[in-house]
Amino acid sequence: MKLNEEERALLAGEGGRARQWAIRHQIEVGKFFDAEDMVPVDQAHVMADPESLGEAGVRWLSDIAAMPESERRVRIPTITDPRGVDFAAYKRLHQTDDMASLEERAIRAFEAMGVLMTNTCINYQTILPPVRGEHVAFGDTGVVIYSNAVFGARSNFEGGPSAIAAGLTGRTPRYGYHLDRNRLGTKLFELRHQPKDFSEWGALGAVVGKRSGSYWSVPVITGIESAPSSDDLKHFGAALASFGSVAMFHMPGITPDAPTLADAFDGPPPPASTITSEDIASVYEGYAARGDKVDVVVFSAPQLSLIELEKVANLLDGRQVHAGTTLIAATSPEIKFAADRMGLTRRIEGAGGIVLSGVCFYQSYAREMAEANGWSRLMSNSAKLVNIIGGYGYKPTLATMERCVDSAVAGKVL
Amino acid sequence: MAQTLLCHPGIGPDVEGIALVASDDFSARYDLDRIKGVFSRPAHKLFGQDYRERILVLNNVKGGVASAWMLNEMASRDVKPAAFVFNRVNPILAQGAALAALSLVDRFEDGDVTQLIRNGERIRVRPSEGQVILLDRP
């Protein structure tokens, strides 16, 4: 890789040990993907929940945090993905003091590094959305795909260590979605069914993701009759990234990098793969469990916007969650403050639900929570969550937000 | 006697071990019980199989970014695969392998690596050379 004078100095240790580790890590990853050089980035976003970190990861962070201030501080605004423990609610969820302690140590380390604890996977809705052409180092698949596709920003999936490296050096290897040639469409999809709600947008993401099947695929979706909302595209992108590891898509006429179908491809478009209402229905059928007792209903993955929280509150007004069911809604700290101020938290919790701040369900020791609470059947309107959570021992069911709330009140899958 | 498969140069040290092969994708968060060291996702083709010190031969990487930390965490407890041999990986597995000092190769010249390597056979992974050697093949 070509390194400039500053990068060579970092490699020589002139920026301290943390930055020396960071540039070495970036060179190793960059060489693996044939990056020719580094590209400056002006934001980093770090996924580092305590379950993923473990004791080893927290020790690793703490070692950096113990270095002199000039060595350990990040050089660009660096923010965090959801945490694993909401200190105001963890005992209600039967998470343990050990989990909370590990979480506290991780937060202390991040703060010593100058990382801003935003604790959100909807930073593009709540903190600072990137702009078209801006190079960033974002570390949540839903954040990356939304930023690349909807804003036209440029990021690869940057896992926690690589996002920290980007924070420390202010750059990242130039490969993948930092390069024009990799952002062109590779597959064409034509919708014959218009998604009607968040779960259907997620189901559409699941269908496209399964048919795309690779980080290096760029699906192009046509046939959308009216512009989706930010929350629609949030669920679509999160599911697309989850089912297919996809990091970029085009919707000609909606997303900025390809105003027309011709702009989306390098040459004539390939034959289209059609997506029908039956394809969408089959996603739900794969998780169907009508009549089963439902243990936990979860609205999360991604964290809820203020608008989604209001919908949950509206659906719960005048009703009570069944005694044998737990209903959880997770959002970012900024949205939680707003929800508190606007009475949404009171309405949801008054109906027996729990509103969590700064966490996401699957990043919160999901397996241990299931064991401690006796949870098995999980219901959600998030296609991403039902895709992930099976590996943690849950039996997941996908449904609309309305059916999820109705089921939470009935105590069984409706 | 051995056959050699050529691939893109990878990450990590040379490793020798037994291949655990499936034409399926991979995510440490989605697919593994990392405490027990087994594949825990019922829909995965390796469901129930012990992955500890096996060389995982799989198709692609799916899902989220957690593997970047989880490989390091698994390595710290010795509940880790010996190496990763994939058709194509995403950045997360490369970043995770780099942090955990685990071996990783992908992009094979001769086609689908999940068809080229047999489940249970002994192989040597040489990331710096971009080679996987099938040790028991004439």
Keywords:
heterodimer, A: 414 residues, alpha/beta, Aconitase, domain 3, 3-stranded parallel β-sheet, 18 helices, 43% helix, B: 138 residues, Glucose Oxidase, domain 1, 4 helices, 34% strand, PMDh-L-like_dom (chain A)
Describe the protein in words.
Chain A: Residues 1-406 form the Phosphomevalonate dehydratase large subunit-like domain. Chain A: InterPro entries: PMDh-L-like_dom. Chain A: This is Aconitase X catalytic domain-containing protein. Chain A: It comes from Ancylobacter mangrovi. The complex is a heterodimer of chains A (414) and B (138). Chain A is an alpha/beta fold and 414 residues long. Chain A is built from 18 helices and 12 strands. Chain A has 3 domains: 5-173, Aconitase, domain 3, CATH 3.30.499.10; 184-284, no CATH class; 288-410, Aconitase, domain 3 (2-Layer Sandwich), CATH 3.30.499. Chain A has helices at residues 5-11, 17-32, 50-65, 69-72, 97-112, 123-126, 141-151, 160-169, 198-212, 230-244, 261-264, 277-285, 306-316, 333-341, 344-350, 366-373, 383-389, 401-410, and strands at 38-40, 44-46, 78-80, 171-173, 187-191, 219-222, 272-275, 296-304, 326-331, 354-357, 377-380, 395-398. In chain A, helix 3 (50-65) packs across helix 5 (97-112) and helix 7 crosses helix 10 (230-244). Chain A is globular. With 138 residues, chain B is an alpha/beta fold. In chain B, 20% of the residues lie in helices and 34% in strands. Chain B is built from 4 helices and 9 strands, in the order E-E-H-E-E-E-H-E-H-E-H-E-E. In chain B, helix 2 (67-76) runs parallel beside helix 3. The model of chain B has no long low-confidence stretch (mean pLDDT 95). At the A-B interface, helix 2, helix 3, helix 8 and helix 10 of A face strand 1, helix 1, strand 3, helix 2 and helix 3 of B.
**CATH first level of the largest domain in chain A:** Alpha Beta
Contiguous uncertain segments of 5+ residues of chain A:
none
List SSEs of chain B in N-to-C order: EEHEEEHEHEHEE
Largest sheet of chain B: 7 strands, mixed, barrel
Label the structural class of chain B. Answer: alpha/beta
- Name given to the CATH homologous superfamily of chain B: Phosphohistidine domain
Helix content of chain B: 10-25%
Number of helices of chain B: 4
Q: Counting H and I runs of at least 4 residues, what is the number of helices of chain A?
A: 18
